[in-house]
Amino acid sequence: MRTYRLGHYRIDWGLSTLLLLQALTLFVAVPLNTQYASAHLLLDGCRLGFALVCVTVLTRHRLVQLLLLLSLAVPLIGPVVARHLLLDIGIEVSAGF
Question: Residue 31, CB half-sphere, CA atoms under 13 Å: how many?
């Protein structure tokens, strides 16, 4: 982990980013999600950001980082690929898919 000195204090930017994302999730995204239906995008973004920082900061091996990043991309890419495949074979896709 990378640490930097600021005066007498040592700062770990990865852990500071995780703390900031966790605070944003708990105190902003979750309360907004209970009030507004469209706020789930902010909550999902916070979760994805938290996962990305965990992968890049807490894992040292590049191959493990690559595999974890690919596993995070599968849920994002999967619905798009599935829709194209279903349309290619002639199955009508509903709006929710």
Answer: 5
